[in-house]
Amino acid sequence: MVSTVLVPISAEAQDFKRSFWLHSALAQATETRQAPFTVSLASGLNSVIGNAAMAGIGLSVVGALALGQTDQVSGAGGSLSQNALPTGDYRDTTQGAYGTEYRYNANLAQLNVLPLNNYGYDGTGINVAVVDSGIDASHPEFLNSTIRGYDFSNSATGYGGDPNGHGTHVASIIAGDADGTGMRGVAYDATLYSYRVDADGDGTFEALNTDSRTAAVARRHITDNIQVSNNSWGRKGDVTSYTNSQVRSSYRLSIAAFADAQAAGTLFVVAAGNSGNSEVSIDGGLPYHAPELVDAWLVVVASDENGVETGFTNRCGVAAAFCVTAPGNRVLAADAGTTGYVSLSGTSMAAPFVSGLAAALMEKFPNLTPKQIATRIKTTASLAPLKGFFGETLANDGTAAMEAIFGHGLVDSGAAAAQIGNLTYALGPDVSRGQDLSQSKLALPAGVGRDLAKQIMADDFVVFDSFDNAMFTVSGSQVFEAAAAGFVPSYGAGSATIDAIGGSVKARRALHSQPKEQLIFSFLQQGDTPITADYWQGMAALFAPQPFVVPAAKLRMSWECRQGSISSLMPFLSFGSGALGQGSDRSLEIGLASKVRLGGAIDLISSISVGEQAINFGLDDQSDLIGLVKAEFGVNATLNAANRFFLRYEQSRYSDRAATESDFGMSAARADSWMMGVETQLPEADLTVGVRNDYALSQGTVSLMTPASMLKDGTILYDHKSYGLDRSVRLRPFVAVQHDTYGGTLNFGARFGSWDRSDLEGVELSFSRQF
């Protein structure tokens, strides 16, 4: 079993026999320093590795605690980050010399750090406190690091010195520079705070030897906005050796200070201890007696490089609910007072791996609380790759036995950084109003058109993990889906009747005798029958309706003035039931339609209207009114007794509207549609073949408020995305057939995405019969 150095102190040691241990036990089971040895750091570069073991580690202070200002020892950041791509973009952090540096600490691979580091998550902007013997800021592993701190021990050299070396070793595991030489830490660009609690390196942490002094260190976390606190220290005795009343009495100030720091945003990571006990130390297991601390507290036991429990580590025991496992055997890291490195073992080395992981996760998920970060680490840890010191495995001994040893299991950086629950796209102030993308994607309105849909699909969007609201960025294709094929030109696709004074008649070839002037009242069930329907002699059903307009029952009133068969002029007014106070549709449209016949065979058809229409141009089923100007122009030419040619263009211009979380905004937006073809009258059938350009947005700007970030209280902040519209005309073929059979009418329509007939976008088949 690996030996452990226990350094007792006498200050206020009543009740608890307060003694500190520092986890300097070695895999070689010796406390004596070993001879220096050489390790290759990079091609052609060798460095003397410092002495491999330490006989005793500790810190001590003399006199009262004196608070001073926080200063910065050195600035800049890790070299990998300085030259990095934007956070979230992939980069290989193991190329060339960086690969040699990465492999120098084999535990990084065991921790699976690359899914974080390779996407730029390296602890940037995260403050990590190292409550320890100090940090040797002159060591090469910190030359590009930012180190601030406070000397609680009133030492001669300040928080930037470390005559003992323990704190320097721990700090480099957390945030050693990624500069292509030596080793690197898990969160190599985190900001380190050296909370020095040892005066002279004699192995006694005097600045923590009373409840009040420990509380003072904990409260400093609030002042410095510490997000992760690494504590590779502890007192003699395991967590079950003391009663709840003893702990509450002796740790009264410390418990309150820890709780306040957690509420201010600190996650505490504590080493489990190196006594080989079945329970963690009293300090690591403090939440067992003070449950108010459990949410933002992790205690860490040590495994070796093969996932086997080390002989020196304490087991999780009653602290299993907030206990995890990390590598802690033969960990190579910075050696204070030298330019080299030293291999040490202990739970002191395991804890900083978890602290570094927490810092990288906090950068990736800035909206998560310390509790949520701890929960994510625990949830994604695994017992499967671990084996107990006596050969215990998950398969042979079961979950309960393994949890007593390893808690939640070996931490996994990649799993902790990944999606755990379902992804949700938010549509409101929080995720309670949103779309669960595991159920279905959000459908884009059909009228956005292919060009705009492609822009949206290629863009990036923020979504939230249902497990804890962790933010992820995904492509639009993972959030949205294009609308279905949409309108299929077919004689049965729309209204196949014309309303007239004498009633509704089937619109075919012949024109029925009508008076020169007539007042027509039409009740439109869907409200998408064009005012020029009777001018087109039954072909109106082939025309696509306006995009986004919500189908609703409308009342249309028109006054048609005819000059024989030569011309027709028809002013009209249509309105929804809400305009009369009888429903929710408050749409209103007024306009003018006309037809002029040239040479007895060519009809020029046009219309223009203005008004307000209810549209649904969003991601939910809500609709609202928008100003709309619509114009139509067409040609209906008789070629011979059996054939006629038609050409129709329609344009809609929309008033500007602001974007919301669930509705697209518009600016100078225009939508249009083209269609032309030839209709052939066959015995008992009509056949139309032609080309069309789908009715879709073609000009202007479309915008949407999309989730950008989330506050820790769950409030979502939104960003404004804009997409320019510049659609080109793309004519695509279609075919429609109307056949009289079995006393009714069979309608068939098909639309194609290209001239290749195999690219079939949509088909419609219907049969109608009057009874």
Radius of gyration: 37 Å
CATH topology of the largest domain: Rossmann fold
CATH architectural label of the largest domain: 3-Layer(aba) Sandwich
CATH class of the largest domain: Alpha Beta
Percentage beta strand: 25-35%
Low-confidence stretches: 1-78, 493-513
Fraction of residues in H or I helices: 10-25%
- For this structure, what is the CATH homologous superfamily of the largest domain? Peptidase S8/S53 domain
What is the general shape? elongated
Number of strands: 36
InterPro entries: Peptidase_S8/S53_dom, Peptidase_S8/S53_dom_sf, Peptidase_S8_Asp-AS, Peptidase_S8_His-AS, Peptidase_S8_Ser-AS, Peptidase_S8_subtilisin-like, Peptidase_S8_subtilisin-rel, Peptidases_S8_Autotransporter
Protein name: Subtilase family protein
Pfam family, one: Peptidase_S8
Domain Peptidase S8/S53: 123-409
Characterize the structure shown.
The active site is at 132 (charge relay system), 166 (charge relay system), 348 (charge relay system). Belongs to the peptidase S8 family. Keywords: Hydrolase, Protease, Serine protease, Signal. GO terms for molecular function: serine-type endopeptidase activity. This is Subtilase family protein. This protein is an alpha+beta fold and 771 residues long. The protein folds into three domains: 5-416, Rossmann fold; 432-481, no CATH class; 497-768, Beta Barrel (Porin), CATH 2.40.160. Helix content is 16%, strand content 34%. The protein has 14 helices and 36 strands. The strands form eight sheets. Strands 24, 25, 26, 27, 28, 29, 30, 31, 32, 33, 34, 35 and 36 form a 13-stranded antiparallel β-sheet that branches. An eight-stranded mixed β-sheet has the order 5-7-8-6-9-11-12-13, sandwiched between helices. It has a four-stranded antiparallel β-sheet with strand order 17-16-19-20. Helix 5 links the parallel strand 7 and strand 8. The radius of gyration is 37 Å and the shape is elongated.
